[in-house]
Amino acid sequence: MVQINGKKVLLKEAADTDIDELYFWKYEDKEQEAKKWNGPYITEEKISKAEYISHWAHEIYPDMPASLAILVDGKTIGYVGSYWVDKNTDWLDTGIVIYDKNYWNGGYGSEAYELWIDHIFQNTDLHRLGMSTWSGNRRMIKVAEKLGMKEEARIREARKVNGNYFDAVKMGILRREWDLTKN
Questions:
Q1: CATH code of 23's domain
Q2: Which of 59, 79, 60, 83 lies closest to 69, judged by CA?
Q3: DSSP state of 13
Q4: pLDDT in tens, 39-85
Q5: Would you say residue 91 lies in a domain?
Q6: Each residue's pLDDT tens digit, 110-165
Q7: What is the DSSP code string of 57-96?
Q8: Which parts of the sequence belong to the N-acetyltransferase domain (predicted)?
């Protein structure tokens, strides 16, 4: 069972209660504040809880889950995740969502994302990790830059949010760059 302790957050494989909380935040919460920042240009259909649970069974490597729940003082506030863009070329993208807005701007997301990236680099032989966002999500870009990620691509006005166009942004970090930030 993967469990990573930070100063502010705990990353762990999601238990049933965590999945219930994450499902609520993703599909049932009336405000949907996180959706205004995390891919608001993506139309998502609500899926059943059983389908949602099955997503949590995915692994990126044997015994390495594709996602971990983020907890603060026992409360599930979001998750970190990863997905293959191209497994043949070891192209893995990562991400983070803090659903509970009471934990925004307090360093929880930065710490969780740093722990996640470090865990992946420590437990795989991947050469690089990436992430994708949109230019309107300045907080995510700032977190990625803080952790040493570099902008690798910007596709101009490729994302439409609330009738306005924004750039799609790809960022990434190489293992040797990550290692330098840890020394």
A1: 3.40.630.30
A2: 79
A3: P
A4: 999 988 999 999 999 999 899 998 899 999 999 999 999 999 999 99
A5: yes
A6: 999 999 999 999 999 999 999 999 999 999 999 999 999 999 999 999 999 999 99
A7: T-EEETTEESEEEEEETTEEEEEEEEEEEEGGGTEEEEEE
A8: 9-176
Report the interhelical angle of 175-182 vs 108-123 (nearest 10°): 120
Q: pTM surpassing 0.90?
A: yes
Residue 163 belongs to a domain: no
Residue 73, token pair as written in the block: 């003082």
d(CA 75, CA 10): 10
Q: Which of 132, 159, 163 is nearest to 42 (CA)?
A: 159
Phi, psi of 64 (to 5 degrees): -130, 105
* Whole-number Å distance between alpha carbons of 117 and 107: 16
What range defines the domain where residue 96 resides?
3-128
